[in-house]
Write a structure and sequence with these properties.
The chain is built from 18 helices and 18 strands. It is globular, with a radius of gyration of 28 Å. Helix 5 runs antiparallel to helix 7. By secondary structure, it is of the alpha/beta class. It has a seven-stranded mixed beta sheet, with helices on both faces. A five-stranded parallel beta sheet has the order 7-6-5-8-9, sandwiched between helices. A two-stranded antiparallel ribbon has the order 1-2. The relative contact order is 0.11.
Length: 566
């Protein structure tokens, strides 16, 4: 062996060949070029979608008298002049279900805040539903989407996110036009939540779906185990009307990122906006050189829904809606043992601990109760307050609620100054439940509750066909009353007094629901103790609804919903 010693003044690094430095330089250059290529190849792809005229605040249309989904049957002028294409709105074929021998089924779309006619669109028949499922299956198999890389999937998510951010106001306006909600409601419930979920999938979706190692039992120490997440194929989602953009796009992007195709059944109440939103998603897929048929929109009457829920080609169903419909879906899905994920109703309590600063939180509570005009699954429906603060809370809630301005979000202010835009609350989705709401409120009053404000439908002076219910405050409510036990899904506040914290917990847990809750108080450790005692899936401390954003970032994998809110 030959070794060389160096004098104290010599630097051994001087004798290293320059080839090593050149090699490192070239390797680094190749690495950065590759990363640059990856960023360019999988960056967001721009695409455009035509903005509907009805999204403008200056747009007007025919006002439908007492509008409903079947208004076209009473007014033939509302019927469409031409048949709509299969892929977006359904077309009827020989053998399709018809209203009679000559007329296919249609759905009248209207703005519930004004009664304006938006469109009349053909409803899907059982044949149409089967055909759309088949189109999704063929697109999934032909494109080999289940074998796509996570970079390919992230590209789709980036493209959608870019489009949503760029067109956020248009998306909000379309949602407002079809549901009657305000622009602020749309910004919070439609845009921000959708962007948060897209960002989560881009940043963390791959890690959530990567193979996971599992520890072996001591006797099998020499074996290894792994869990792999494989695409299912074609999955379905049946979503509610209260957030037409977010509820439509959420199951779609989750399905696509997991390597699946997705068939979504929207509510008949929001077919107009859902058609436009689905068009944007399909346009995004096409811009990414993927088959648009990977996603399909279905809208039908309940009599045809079994064609989706009982299909042997649907590998999983996600449902957002009422408990009654959820039970029917479970029964239909059991035919082929199709897995089902349910997100049902809620009767969320807000527990207010003694000595809470009521004026400090009053605006947060109003947002919690009147977000989306009360049509919010995680909205605050029950205020449970110490008896010593009951009257003060009722006074604050009544004064604030009395000042709320209801009206159409996209209407401009009137020339006489009587109608001032923008409004605080929009309309409800329909008048269908007005009679039941009046009955429940009246019965509560007969049983000892006090109606301090509202309790009836409201006829808007500027839009006679708008579907408005008065902001309502009902106090001294007892747990046995129907108003305290059933989800109202309306702009109705109920206030329930308690004497001890244990009583408050019992009242909060005293319904069949278990979706979410809020706890407010001056001492956080006391709030946490109460939160841990509540039988529900999600609890906010000194805030409202923030858990929803946190959980949606986990792609609904962490939802621990119990009871009738599953």
């Amino acid at each position: 062996m030959v070794s060389k010693t160096y004098d104290s003044g010599e630097d051994p690094w001087l004798e290293i060949s320059p080839i090593y430095g050149l090699t490192l330089f070239i390797a680094g250059g190749i690495y950065f070029l590759f990363k640059r290529y990856q960023r360019i190849k999988y960056r967001a792809v721009p695409f455009a979608v035509k903005v509907p005229a009805a999204a403008s605040s200056k747009w007007t249309s025919v006002v439908i008298e007492n509008p409903s989904l079947e208004s076209h049957l009473m007014n033939s002028s509302l019927m469409p002049t031409a048949r709509v294409p299969l892929l977006m709105q359904g077309i009827h074929h020989p053998g399709s279900k018809k209203a009679d021998d000559d007329t296919p089924l249609y759905i009248t779309c209207f703005d519930p805040s004004t009664g304006y006619h938006l469109d009349t669109i053909s409803a899907d028949s059982e044949y149409d539903i089967a055909e759309k499922i088949s189109l999704a299956r063929r697109a999934w198999a032909k494109s080999r989407w289940g074998e796509s890389t996570f970079n390919d999937r992230k590209r789709v998510m980036r493209s959608l996110l870019r489009w949503v951010v760029k067109n956020r106001e248009t998306c909000a306006r379309v949602a407002c036009r079809d549901t009657g909600k305000t622009m602020l409601d749309a910004a919070l419930g439609e845009i921000l939540t959708t962007c948060a979920k897209l960002e989560y999938l881009i940043d963390h979706g791959e890690a959530a779906l990567k193979p996971e190692s599992r520890k072996s039992a001591p006797l099998m120490f020499y074996k290894s185990s792994k869990v792999y997440y494989e695409p299912l194929g074609v999955v379905a989602a049946i979503v509610s009307w209260n957030y037409p953009f977010h509820n439509l796009i959420s199951p779609i992007i989750a399905a696509l990122f997991a390597g699946n195709a997705c068939v979504v059944k929207c509510s008949e109440q929001v077919l107009w906006s859902s058609t436009w939103f689905m068009g944007a998603i399909r346009e995004c897929l096409a811009a990414c050189d993927l088959p648009a048929d990977l996603v399909q929109l279905i809208c039908c009457y309940p009599s045809e829904a079994d064609a989706l829920t009982m299909s042997p080609h649907i590998k999983h169903i996600t449902f957002i809606g009422s408990e009654t419909v959820g039970r029917k879906i479970l029964q239909a899905a059991s035919i082929h043992l199709t897995p089902v994920t349910l997100e049902l109703g809620g009767k969320d309590p807000c527990v207010i601990l003694p000595e809470t600063d009521l004026p400090k939180w009053i605006d947060v509570w109003l947002r919690g109760s009147f977000q989306n005009c009360g049509q919010n699954c995680i909205g605050i429906e029950r205020f449970i307050v110490h008896s010593s603060q009951h009257d003060q809370l009722v006074k604050l809630l009544t004064e604030k609620t009395k000042k709320l301005r209801f009206g159409p979000a996209l209407a401009e202010g009137s020339n006489d100054g009587g109608y001032i835009a923008p409004v605080d609350c929009g309309s409800m989705i329909s008048r269908h439940r007005f009679g039941d709401l009046e009955r429940v409120i009246q019965e509560a009053e007969e049983e000892g509750a006090t109606v301090f404000l509202g309790g009836h439908p409201w006829k808007h002076p500027y839009v006679e066909e708008g579907m408005y219910f008065e902001g309502t405050v009902v106090a001294n409510v007892s747990p046995s009353m129907e108003i305290a036990q059933h989800e109202l899904f309306a702009p109705v506040i109920t206030v329930m007094p308690y004497n001890t914290v244990e009583d408050a917990i019992a009242i909060a847990n005293g319904t069949r629901y278990g979706l979410g809750a809020s706890v407010f108080g001056p001492k956080q450790h006391e709030c946490l103790n109460v939160a841990r005692a509540l039988e529900c899936g999600m609890v906010s401390i000194n805030d409202f609804g923030v858990f929803y954003v946190s959980l949606i970032l986990d792609v609904q994998l962490a939802l621990n919903l119990i009871s009738a809110s599953l």
